[in-house]
Amino acid sequence: MIDRLKFILDHYNLTSTNFAEKIDVPKSSISHLLSGRNKPSLDFIMKVDKAFDEVDLVWLLYGKGSFPKNNDDSISLFNQELNKKPKTEAISKNNFDNSEKSDNFSTLPPKILTKVILLYSDGTFDVFDK
């Protein structure tokens, strides 16, 4: 991630001081991050995401995707219409018949949702445990 932060600085021709001012963090924080002394916090990452529209969060975190972000290729839950109904398909009763289970899936344990984490644009989050 440090390399991607340096890439952002180069792309926008920013010094570490200018970058710190733009995202509203102490300039020592930038120095510590770029030297590898510290790792970026969630708050820091959210400030970068908010300050630079062209930075794709997935690219910043994982190095996947592109910079500057290509809005045509990005897939995000947050870009979808909130009131849009999900697509449904007709499912026949036979799809759930246990006698027709495939051997590949009969030994897999069921997946159980245990935690949901919601991240908000202001850097806060909520965690919901089972």
TrEMBL record:
Q: Does the keyword Glycoprotein apply?
A: no
SUPFAM superfamilies, sorted: lambda repressor-like DNA-binding domains
UniProt-listed Pfam families: HTH_3 (PF01381)
Gene3D superfamilies, sorted: lambda repressor-like DNA-binding domains
Q: Which InterPro entries match?
A: Cro/C1-type_HTH (IPR001387), Lambda_DNA-bd_dom_sf (IPR010982)
Q: Does the keyword Metal-binding belong to this entry?
A: no
Domain HTH cro/C1-type, by residue range, is 5-60
Q: Which UniProt keywords apply?
A: DNA-binding, Transcription, Transcription regulation
Q: Which CDD domains match?
A: HTH_XRE
Name assigned to this protein: HTH_3 family transcriptional regulator protein
